[in-house]
Amino acid sequence: MGLSDALLPEFDQEMQNTRKTLERVPEDKFGWKPHEKSWAMGGLATHIANLPSWIVLAINQDSLDLAPGGVPTPPLQPVKSRQELLAMFDKNIAAARAAIAGASDAHLMKPWSLLRNGQTLMTVPKIAVLRSFVMNHGIHHRAQLGVYLRLNDVLVPAIYGPSADEGMF
Length: 169
Known about the structure:
mainly alpha, Four Helix Bundle (Hemerythrin (Met), subunit A), globular
């Protein structure tokens, strides 16, 4: 079994669970923040919906420069509706899944670098980018979004087992 074949079932499960969480984000709370240092709910949800696009980037490119020419990349603008949020997420997971399915073991083991203004911050195998910077990063933010939902009296979906609001998944 290749790396892609091993990763895809986990990817599918995590993306299904993430979609369940994104489906619950109330549009009237997109601007809500639990703390002044926190992201607004809409910005956090947009970030989560965008994260799968990093898989395509990591597979198709050998690096990402966060500030090419010394100019930081502009932040992603939050979506305006739940429909737009879910459409972005669905598009990104379809492209990510196809990229994973098409990647050979040798390709996934190639080095990938994170840069800032041309200076290498770190280099890891592409498979590590998929697992750490996308999958684990997304799980972290999905849990954060679950807290946002709880604090707004929105039912939190069952993910790995029952939540206080739902029985088994």
